[in-house]
Amino acid sequence: MYTRILYKKAYRLLKDSTPLKFDCGLICSSKCCSGDSDMGMYIYPGEEVMFEGHEDFLFIRQDKLRDTDVLFAVCNGKCNRRYRPLACRIFPFTPYIDEKGRLTVIEDPRAKYICPLLSGSIDLGIDTAFKRNVLNAFRALIRDDEIRRFICLLSSALDEYRKLTG
Ligand code: SF4
Ligand code: SF4
Known about the structure:
Layout: H1 2-14, H2 25-28, E1 41-43, E2 58-65, E3 68-75, H3 86-90, E4 93-97, E5 103-107, H4 116-119, H5 128-141, H6 145-165
Helix pairs in contact: 1-5
């Protein structure tokens, strides 16, 4: 119940909030929605409480992040945005918790080779209000210990990814 309240709040904070003031999918033919079956997104811990049966566009499977069991979703490339998972709502950003336990929002290094807003191929600044809303959403979510732990784990996995990809 508590988790649902947190996710409802996060979804509300991100409602109508997008990287640009217009649909950025128009500049890249929605590249982040056009992956193959190896591409997808983590479902944040407990987020499945928000799924009420409208999510037939998602294929959710058990996966591992390091040694931890997580849920991972792949989609069919078309969805009702109202029901899309949190990871899609915040793309191309990701929450990050540093070694001092501070929460920030960073450009997702995994998105660098997908999203033209990060690759520098298109010179359009991401709306600062969007980034602020993502941060506020995660400030609410990390009140849940499991979500905080997951973001710590994700952050160290992203550090490793950055080291490997330069
Ligand atoms: S890849 Fe980037 S620019 Fe394209 S739709 Fe996704 S977030 Fe927008
Ligand atoms: S669930 Fe929707 S927003 Fe997310 S990648 Fe798939 S089509 Fe795009």
